[in-house]
Amino acid sequence: MSIADNIKSLKKETGEINVALLAVSKTKPAADLQQAYDAGQRLFGENTVQELVEKQEQLPKDIEWHLIGHLQTNKVKYIAPFISMIQSVDSIKLLQEINKHAAKNNRVIDCLLQIYIADEETKFGLGFDEAIELLRSEEYAALKNVRIRGLMGIATNTDAEKQIKEEYYELKTFFDGIKVSFFRKQESFDTLSMGMSADYKVAIEQGSNMVRLGSTIFGGRVVKHWKNN
Ligand SMILES: *Cc1c(COP(=O)(O)O)cnc(C)c1O
After folding, report:
1. Domain range holding 151?
2. Is any ligand 1 atom within 6 A of the Cβ of residue 211?
3. Would the CB of 124 count as within 6 Å of ligand 1?
4. Is the Cβ–Cβ distance between 97 and 80 less than 8 Å?
5. Is-above-0.90 flag for pTM?
Protein backbone atom coordinates (compact mmCIF):
# COMPACT_ATOMS: atom_id res chain seq x y z
CA MET A 1 0.00 0.00 0.00
CA SER A 2 1.11 3.57 -0.63
CA ILE A 3 1.80 6.09 2.14
CA ALA A 4 -1.45 7.84 1.17
CA ASP A 5 -3.44 4.59 1.45
CA ASN A 6 -1.86 3.85 4.83
CA ILE A 7 -2.75 7.30 6.13
CA LYS A 8 -6.32 7.07 4.89
CA SER A 9 -7.00 3.70 6.47
CA LEU A 10 -5.23 4.54 9.75
CA LYS A 11 -6.99 7.91 10.02
CA LYS A 12 -10.29 6.10 9.58
CA GLU A 13 -9.43 3.40 12.11
CA THR A 14 -8.25 5.85 14.78
CA GLY A 15 -10.64 8.70 13.97
CA GLU A 16 -13.70 6.56 14.59
CA ILE A 17 -12.60 6.02 18.18
CA ASN A 18 -11.14 9.51 18.81
CA VAL A 19 -7.53 8.42 18.97
CA ALA A 20 -5.07 10.96 17.55
CA LEU A 21 -2.67 9.68 14.91
CA LEU A 22 0.90 10.97 15.06
CA ALA A 23 2.87 10.11 11.91
CA VAL A 24 6.43 9.33 13.02
CA SER A 25 8.56 10.35 10.08
CA LYS A 26 12.11 10.01 11.47
CA THR A 27 14.73 9.04 8.86
CA LYS A 28 12.19 9.51 6.04
CA PRO A 29 12.68 12.13 3.32
CA ALA A 30 10.49 15.22 3.11
CA ALA A 31 8.84 13.83 -0.04
CA ASP A 32 7.39 10.95 2.00
CA LEU A 33 5.98 13.37 4.56
CA GLN A 34 4.49 15.43 1.75
CA GLN A 35 2.62 12.35 0.52
CA ALA A 36 1.17 11.83 3.98
CA TYR A 37 0.31 15.53 4.18
CA ASP A 38 -1.47 15.39 0.82
CA ALA A 39 -3.54 12.49 2.15
CA GLY A 40 -4.70 14.74 5.00
CA GLN A 41 -2.15 14.09 7.76
CA ARG A 42 -1.19 17.12 9.87
CA LEU A 43 0.43 15.66 13.03
CA PHE A 44 4.04 14.61 12.54
CA GLY A 45 6.60 13.36 15.07
CA GLU A 46 10.39 13.37 14.88
CA ASN A 47 12.92 12.16 17.42
CA THR A 48 15.82 14.52 16.72
CA VAL A 49 15.91 18.31 16.75
CA GLN A 50 18.03 18.42 13.60
CA GLU A 51 15.59 16.44 11.45
CA LEU A 52 12.65 18.26 12.92
CA VAL A 53 14.06 21.69 12.06
CA GLU A 54 15.14 20.65 8.55
CA LYS A 55 11.75 19.22 7.69
CA GLN A 56 9.82 22.06 9.30
CA GLU A 57 11.62 24.45 6.96
CA GLN A 58 10.78 22.40 3.87
CA LEU A 59 7.17 21.42 4.50
CA PRO A 60 3.80 23.24 4.78
CA LYS A 61 3.47 25.56 7.75
CA ASP A 62 0.19 24.16 9.06
CA ILE A 63 1.87 20.90 10.13
CA GLU A 64 1.84 20.32 13.89
CA TRP A 65 5.26 19.04 14.89
CA HIS A 66 5.81 16.86 17.94
CA LEU A 67 9.20 15.97 19.38
CA ILE A 68 9.22 12.38 20.65
CA GLY A 69 12.94 11.80 21.27
CA HIS A 70 15.28 12.82 24.06
CA LEU A 71 15.81 16.58 24.12
CA GLN A 72 19.04 18.19 25.32
CA THR A 73 18.55 21.50 27.09
CA ASN A 74 20.96 23.30 24.73
CA LYS A 75 18.75 22.44 21.74
CA VAL A 76 15.41 23.71 23.03
CA LYS A 77 15.98 27.11 21.43
CA TYR A 78 15.89 25.68 17.89
CA ILE A 79 12.36 24.28 18.18
CA ALA A 80 10.79 26.70 20.66
CA PRO A 81 9.44 29.09 17.98
CA PHE A 82 7.24 26.48 16.28
CA ILE A 83 6.98 23.15 18.12
CA SER A 84 3.40 22.03 18.87
CA MET A 85 4.21 19.50 21.56
CA ILE A 86 7.26 18.08 23.30
CA GLN A 87 6.36 14.54 24.33
CA SER A 88 9.70 13.64 25.87
CA VAL A 89 9.97 15.83 28.98
CA ASP A 90 11.97 13.83 31.50
CA SER A 91 13.30 16.36 34.03
CA ILE A 92 12.41 19.62 35.76
CA LYS A 93 15.59 21.13 34.31
CA LEU A 94 14.39 20.47 30.79
CA LEU A 95 10.93 21.81 31.58
CA GLN A 96 12.48 25.01 32.97
CA GLU A 97 14.53 25.43 29.82
CA ILE A 98 11.46 24.90 27.62
CA ASN A 99 9.61 27.46 29.73
CA LYS A 100 12.42 29.99 29.28
CA HIS A 101 12.47 29.69 25.50
CA ALA A 102 8.68 29.58 25.25
CA ALA A 103 8.57 32.90 27.13
CA LYS A 104 11.15 34.41 24.78
CA ASN A 105 8.87 33.46 21.89
CA ASN A 106 5.73 34.68 23.67
CA ARG A 107 4.30 31.18 23.63
CA VAL A 108 3.01 28.48 25.92
CA ILE A 109 4.45 25.14 24.82
CA ASP A 110 2.44 21.95 25.30
CA CYS A 111 4.38 19.09 26.87
CA LEU A 112 3.93 15.49 27.91
CA LEU A 113 5.88 13.91 30.73
CA GLN A 114 7.64 10.82 29.43
CA ILE A 115 7.15 8.02 31.92
CA TYR A 116 9.49 5.08 32.13
CA ILE A 117 7.40 1.91 31.93
CA ALA A 118 9.57 -0.54 30.00
CA ASP A 119 11.46 -3.38 31.55
CA GLU A 120 14.62 -2.42 29.67
CA GLU A 121 17.74 -0.44 30.20
CA THR A 122 16.77 2.83 28.66
CA LYS A 123 18.12 6.09 29.87
CA PHE A 124 15.08 8.28 29.48
CA GLY A 125 11.77 8.84 31.19
CA LEU A 126 10.61 9.67 34.69
CA GLY A 127 9.69 6.98 37.17
CA PHE A 128 6.22 7.26 38.71
CA ASP A 129 7.66 8.76 41.92
CA GLU A 130 9.82 11.20 40.03
CA ALA A 131 6.86 12.45 37.99
CA ILE A 132 4.88 13.08 41.17
CA GLU A 133 7.84 14.84 42.74
CA LEU A 134 8.15 17.08 39.67
CA LEU A 135 4.46 18.00 39.75
CA ARG A 136 4.63 18.80 43.46
CA SER A 137 7.72 20.98 43.19
CA GLU A 138 7.84 24.74 43.62
CA GLU A 139 10.01 24.91 40.52
CA TYR A 140 7.19 23.48 38.44
CA ALA A 141 4.56 25.70 40.04
CA ALA A 142 6.54 28.76 38.93
CA LEU A 143 6.47 27.89 35.22
CA LYS A 144 3.99 29.95 33.22
CA ASN A 145 4.97 29.15 29.64
CA VAL A 146 4.61 25.39 29.60
CA ARG A 147 1.41 23.39 29.81
CA ILE A 148 1.51 19.72 30.68
CA ARG A 149 -1.08 18.03 28.49
CA GLY A 150 -0.55 14.45 29.65
CA LEU A 151 1.84 11.52 29.61
CA MET A 152 3.83 9.50 27.09
CA GLY A 153 5.25 6.01 27.49
CA ILE A 154 7.14 3.43 25.47
CA ALA A 155 6.50 -0.23 26.28
CA THR A 156 9.14 -2.94 26.30
CA ASN A 157 10.19 -4.08 22.86
CA THR A 158 8.98 -7.68 23.18
CA ASP A 159 6.60 -10.17 21.58
CA ALA A 160 5.09 -10.89 24.99
CA GLU A 161 1.73 -9.21 24.59
CA LYS A 162 0.80 -9.78 28.21
CA GLN A 163 3.76 -7.72 29.39
CA ILE A 164 3.01 -4.86 26.99
CA LYS A 165 -0.59 -4.90 28.11
CA GLU A 166 0.43 -4.66 31.77
CA GLU A 167 2.81 -1.78 31.11
CA TYR A 168 0.15 0.21 29.27
CA TYR A 169 -2.43 -0.65 31.91
CA GLU A 170 -0.11 0.73 34.59
CA LEU A 171 0.48 3.91 32.65
CA LYS A 172 -3.24 4.46 32.08
CA THR A 173 -3.91 3.91 35.78
CA PHE A 174 -1.16 6.36 36.66
CA PHE A 175 -2.53 8.88 34.14
CA ASP A 176 -5.98 8.71 35.76
CA GLY A 177 -4.46 9.18 39.22
CA ILE A 178 -2.35 12.14 38.13
CA LYS A 179 -5.34 13.77 36.51
CA VAL A 180 -7.36 13.55 39.71
CA SER A 181 -4.50 14.63 41.96
CA PHE A 182 -2.97 17.48 39.97
CA PHE A 183 -5.16 18.47 37.02
CA ARG A 184 -8.70 18.01 38.28
CA LYS A 185 -9.78 21.41 37.00
CA GLN A 186 -7.73 21.44 33.81
CA GLU A 187 -9.51 19.96 30.84
CA SER A 188 -6.31 20.43 28.87
CA PHE A 189 -4.71 17.50 30.68
CA ASP A 190 -6.14 15.08 28.16
CA THR A 191 -3.40 13.24 26.26
CA LEU A 192 -2.14 9.73 26.86
CA SER A 193 0.40 8.98 24.15
CA MET A 194 1.09 5.26 24.00
CA GLY A 195 1.36 2.77 21.18
CA MET A 196 3.75 2.27 18.25
CA SER A 197 3.39 0.17 15.10
CA ALA A 198 3.93 -3.18 16.82
CA ASP A 199 1.61 -2.58 19.78
CA TYR A 200 -0.81 0.24 19.06
CA LYS A 201 -3.91 -1.96 19.14
CA VAL A 202 -3.03 -3.18 22.63
CA ALA A 203 -2.31 0.42 23.66
CA ILE A 204 -5.71 1.59 22.42
CA GLU A 205 -7.43 -1.24 24.29
CA GLN A 206 -5.67 -0.04 27.43
CA GLY A 207 -6.84 3.55 27.00
CA SER A 208 -4.37 5.34 24.74
CA ASN A 209 -5.74 8.37 22.90
CA MET A 210 -2.66 9.12 20.81
CA VAL A 211 -0.69 6.54 18.84
CA ARG A 212 2.73 7.22 17.32
CA LEU A 213 3.10 5.25 14.11
CA GLY A 214 6.18 5.16 11.91
CA SER A 215 6.80 1.96 9.97
CA THR A 216 3.08 1.18 9.57
CA ILE A 217 2.76 4.40 7.59
CA PHE A 218 6.13 4.91 5.91
CA GLY A 219 7.57 1.39 5.78
CA GLY A 220 10.60 0.07 7.67
CA ARG A 221 13.61 2.15 8.61
CA VAL A 222 17.27 1.34 8.11
CA VAL A 223 18.64 0.85 11.60
CA LYS A 224 21.60 3.11 12.26
CA HIS A 225 23.60 1.32 14.90
CA TRP A 226 26.11 4.11 15.24
CA LYS A 227 23.47 6.55 16.36
CA ASN A 228 21.36 6.45 19.48
CA ASN A 229 18.19 7.76 17.97
C1 LIG B 1 10.29 5.58 16.27
C2 LIG B 1 9.31 5.85 17.34
C3 LIG B 1 7.95 5.52 17.18
C4 LIG B 1 7.39 4.83 15.95
O5 LIG B 1 7.94 3.55 15.78
P6 LIG B 1 7.28 2.49 14.76
O7 LIG B 1 7.60 1.18 15.37
O8 LIG B 1 7.96 2.70 13.46
O9 LIG B 1 5.83 2.77 14.68
C10 LIG B 1 7.08 5.84 18.20
N11 LIG B 1 7.50 6.44 19.32
C12 LIG B 1 8.79 6.78 19.52
C13 LIG B 1 9.18 7.44 20.79
C14 LIG B 1 9.73 6.50 18.53
O15 LIG B 1 11.02 6.83 18.75
Report:
1. 3-214
2. no
3. no
4. no
5. yes
Query: What CA–CA distance (Å, rounded) separates 193 from 151?
Result: 6
Identify the three-state secondary structure at position 5.
helix
Q: How many domains does the chain divide into?
A: 1
What Rg, from alpha-carbon coordinates, does the chain have? 17
CATH number for the domain including 90? 3.20.20.10
Q: Does a structural domain hold residue 219?
A: no
Please state the atom number of ligand 1 nearest to the C-alpha of residue 229. 15
Secondary structure (3-state) at 62? coil
pLDDT 10s digit of each residue in the chain, 229 long? 899 999 999 999 999 999 999 999 999 999 999 999 999 999 999 999 999 999 999 999 999 999 999 999 999 999 999 999 999 999 999 999 999 999 999 999 999 999 999 988 766 899 999 999 999 999 999 999 999 999 999 999 999 999 999 999 999 999 999 999 999 999 999 999 999 999 999 999 999 999 999 999 999 987 655 544 4
Closest ligand 1 atom number to CA of residue 200: 9
213 lines ligand 1 (CB under 6 A): yes
